[in-house]
């Protein structure tokens, strides 16, 4: 009971934040009803996906302070579990998705323990290494289609199919994802006020002090890593049903790992709204820049250049991301 | 008096301009063409685009010099002269991007049909999207057999696929052992029995690898090694060393542009000496392959669907080839010839359908029959299977095997080696030293 | 037997080249504790420099090395002074983000300027030639030259670090930046110098590599990862460590060759079916992971 109350309790935020959040939520709810292009809808779905990815990443990367650049492997585990189960054994999404989470969390425990012996950049690079290793393995594993990937055939299933999450129109996907998004948001809200959340913040501030206070640092980190993994795996499963065509190069690549971390960091790692803001800015930016600029031959890549410049500026001047800027401004105002 | 007169004139003018414009605007048929315009196969992408554009040009204008029915009138006759507009999108070799672009083309640009995509891995995802939305798609150059085995109702493929082409290879090998090849005396089977293959690992290459193994078993050859590699790999020396270690008599490849070039370069650097080198088209056929490697490619065999010698078999091929050469600077290749044929097929389908309604297009495509003399490619024609396990596959296609040879005036070009009865030159065997 | 020998030779040769790729990374890290995600991009720029200069002026690619070194050096210093300097005051997250942004920037700038297609050298004194030293070992002349020059470069850098005053200053900054400052060493300049050397060496590596590998704007990341593995194995900050670790990693990439050797010597068909070549670089990443977990200091490292 108290858990649920905690999850729903946003009262420690200033009123203006809550009003802003409320407006955004209303916008998200009515968005599909607005007459916008399919491109805009696809962009919004991407935004929601990366928000959830980011929220998950934020637990270990933001609140925990351990930059994890290997989340793509869990996207893969989630996506492949759902795909394989659907294609081979006709198991619906709502069953395969939790199973995917189990696999992902299991794997995260296996590599988490050794992984958390490392800190800082060593940890970050090690996460990249594990993700790449898993990706290479999937690319050679025939059971999951190797480098060819897996396809959920559009003619085998009659949309709309809520059990298997196969729909023709994006709008269904949107609302399912929005539901997952809201659940995720409440979860993180609970998380940051939970015991584990406090422990993490303590560890982030000063590990040695945390240790001396009796916190089992390694175990706390591993548990948080597992939570992050679960988030990512859920969206991975969704991704498989949405895109209906997955392959390791595309689902488990390094770029996905980095994008996840990037958006959360840009928006503000360690804050509740950060990852959402980050995704909200970077996803539309990336999509529309590519639309407007990339299409003209001779200007290929300029969208990512602008993207990169923004990242560079934020990292040099306000590493705590956009939310960090907001808080800085507020602190100054208070004086 | 003057005011109302000028107002009346204005209205007349507006009506006189807008109404025909609106009518004209309706008479435009939009086809989305998704090709790899950048990325590792950009060279092929350029050819694909040029071939498609040339076909669109011919259909949209009256060209009495070309012996094709679509050149005789401007636009689609049965639709009041409606012109074809190609909307090109670049998938960069990325299947997910391809699917995204397909969705945009269908939902936002509201195309009437789709053409593409060269890479079998991208065709797979794009056709999936088209099937979902019930938008017809014609595929001109992706050869993975799986694409027509999925039972899709909105996908048609004009090009023969890799099972066909690989069978051609084994017929050639068999022919060598039976003395059927022009200019080569009978090679005893045990001299040319060990094979090794290196294929790129996505949809296309991995199936070629499997098909090679199947046919090898059927025809009695021994595949000592079949490896898959990443087409973006910067270095293929360990792959080549692996092939060398297998000591094969013949080396078989399925590579896109940049990896084909790298592969041959690495073979040369490691002084590999097989008796026969064969490539499953794609990279082995692009102009870049020739310009990057020069004389080294003499003796390499490649499956192809078009080479300049075809001009001697088919007049219309020569006519289109001259136009193409004037526009682009080199002859038609398998890629450009097939994307040309893809657009041409669209034209015939639309002529038969008489409308852009998907159901009409579907019916027309399933009943389509294009005679061989209309096509630049040396096929017997175009007719799509409507039953069996390969719905949508053109059953009248065929392949060629060409070999790079140096002509007396120093030009390197492809000569037809198979089918044996249309061979245009003696085959060079065994493969000459690099 | 010749499979084994040619694999060993190939592994060593490529190892020496990879070592010099990693050298710059280890120096930068040693001096200022920053992990440069954009390292592979410097390599890529070095490759383009070498390629385009050779193609434009018609001179032999090997002669372009000094130019590549200069370009890399300047670029390194520019990146430091113009950007990386500001990252140092932030948390590690900012540094990772920042150098990652730099990587994206350089990569896409190259994409914009050069286009996405592969480019390669087709002409040159050594391009395409190889030495057959018997026993089935074929050594491409370009790789031999690259390995040789790499060894030379290592020796040069080692001399610089250990026998010159500037080298001592660099090492002092690496050991303890605050202490070095008290001793009157201009740390800012040392940092910039480290980036200069780092950028320069990896750029030279690029100009060497382009003799036998093709270049496209996207290849940086693979080399960044390999460089990380080498630096981790050899020890962050250690120059000789980078060399020996480079050799080891070079041999790791030849694992498919060793596997083949076992397959054909013992005639085990099941081994031939294992797609070892697909895993070429996976072993490198795995090696990194295992080393970091078991011995984070690496072979010769003195930094934790």
Any overview of this molecule?
The complex is a heterotrimer of chains A (335), B (434) and C (304). Chain A is mainly alpha-helical and 335 residues long. Chain A has 15 helices and two strands. In chain A, helix 4 (72-89) runs antiparallel to helix 5 (93-115) and helix 7 (170-193) runs antiparallel to helix 10 (217-243). The relative contact order of chain A is 0.17. Chain B has 434 residues and is an alpha/beta fold. Chain B has two domains: 26-160 and 313-382, Response regulator (Rossmann fold, 3-Layer(aba) Sandwich); 163-304 and 399-422, 3-Layer(aba) Sandwich (Rossmann fold). Chain B contains twelve helices and 14 strands. Mean pLDDT of chain B is 86; it is low at 21-25. Chain C has helices at 2-32, 39-57, 65-87, 92-114, 141-163, 165-175, 177-182, 187-209, 220-234, 239-252, 255-266, 269-273, 282-294, and strands at 130-132, 138-140. The radius of gyration of chain C is 20 Å and the shape is globular. The interface between A and C is large, with 45 and 44 residues.
